[in-house]
Design a protein that fits this description.
Blueprint lengths: L6 H13 L2 H8 L6 H10 L1 H18 L3 H13 L20 H7 E11 L2 E11 L2 H12 L13 H16 L1
Length: about 180
Amino acid sequence: MSENFTKLQERFIEEYLLDLNAGQAAKRAGSKAKDIYAAGAGFLRDPKIAAEIDRRKLARSERTRIDADWLLKRLADEAEADIADLYGPDGALLPVSEWPEIWRKGLVAGVDTEEIRVNGVKKGEIKKIRLSDRIKRLALIGKHIGVNAFTENVNHTGLDALADRLARAKKRREK
């Protein structure tokens, strides 16, 4: 434990780095606050705690060699992967051991195999590949590089008009 932090603060930092959920980190750290989410947000507002979290994140990225560049490259490789690479020249699905590495590391969510039998004799099989969500990867890339199509935009219509009406009502009351 660092000398700069209380036991609760130190525990919060450790717990926060597990899932980056401030409320749950405050709860797991042992915060007695009634509103754990407010407690978690309070911890994050503390400049010393925020700086320590950033320092530990950086150290973790250096240890694992996983950073924003690694993630963006991985997402790009996954988004560009060609499903044709899973099939041989005869159109048959290759054994998993012959798939390109990018497909073996998460692009395929599963393979379902069903035997075709006629009078108890195997005549063939059907293999269905379940793919993971490639659109999600593109959205993550878009958010990272700032493509505005992926920016959530919330418009509150009518608030300006309401503010004008309140201002006029206030002026009438003052007269």
